[in-house]
Amino acid sequence: MTSKFVKAALALLAALQLSACAPLMFGGVIGGAMVASDRRTAGIQVEDEGIEQRSATAIRENFGSKEHINITSYNRQVLITGEVSNDTVRSQTEQLIGRVQNVRSVVNELVIGPASSMGDRSNDVLLVAKVKAAMVDSEDVFANVFKVVGERGTVYLMGRVTQREAKRATDVVRGVSGVKRVVRVFEYITEDELRAMQPKRSDSQSVDLNAPKSNASQQPVVTPIK
Fold it and tell me: Among candidates 57, 36, 106, 114, which has minimal Cα distance to 77?
């Protein structure tokens, strides 16, 4: 398992050499007994890719290569990370991404300061790989339902998860060497909604049409955890 993540990290590092705006994240299919499928629909996954591409184009057209800005979209909720030169650029970036087609909400985690070095970004690639490996090795975390983004030692967790899953994943990530801070950017679902996502059994089951509707949050909940 470890060798797979090392290879993935090296592949991301190679891609990073080609693009300074590539987000450092893992969220694809990973082998392992506790890996579940992505909880977004196929259509939403395509939309997220489109949002990231359109956002990258907008950033390039407005700021060129002067700023280090990463865009990560999950379920049409966009996380912005990186470093910019001043607060004006920070605010302009948030407004710019908020106007991108199909974006539902924006979480702005841009830091004002010099751009991270290639060494910092290389370390983040390896850190994200270690985080995903720890999730898989934990055997009770469905690693593939989490999108993991790394920025200067801070690990951002995205996904549609229950409160229970969020807590367990956070505990695992906090135990990974090199993680300075964990920020949860989750869209919470209920345990009932999670059960409804599981493959249906072949035998017929009754459904209570009068059951109350879910009160799960439809907006990202951002929780920094030191």
Answer: 106
Q: Where are the domains of the chain?
A: 2-189+219-225
> What's the gap between Cα 207 and its chain centre?
33
Asked if 156 and 79 count as a contact pair (C-beta separation under 8 A), the reply is yes
Per-residue pLDDT of the chain (226 residues; tens, 9 = 90+): 455 554 555 454 444 444 444 455 554 443 333 334 789 999 999 999 999 999 999 999 999 999 999 999 999 999 999 999 999 999 999 999 999 999 999 999 999 999 999 999 999 999 999 999 999 999 899 999 999 999 999 999 999 999 999 999 999 999 999 999 999 999 999 999 999 988 766 554 444 434 444 444 455 566 776 5
Backbone CA torsion sign across 177, 182, 187, 188: positive
Which residues on neighbouring strands pair with residue 23, listed in sequence order? Answer: none
- Ordered alpha helix ranges (H), the chain: 2-18, 42-63, 87-98, 118-138, 163-174, 191-197
Q: Would you call 223 helix, strand, or coil by DSSP?
A: strand
CB 157 within 8 A of CB 169: yes
Burial status of residue 205 (CB atoms within 10 A of its CB: 0-12, 13-18, 19 or more): exposed
Asked whether the beta carbons of 162 and 140 are under 8 A apart, the reply is no
Structure tokens at 78: 């966009």
pTM to 2 decimals?
0.77
113 alpha-carbon distance from chain centroid? 23
| Residue 190 C-alpha from the chain's centroid | 20
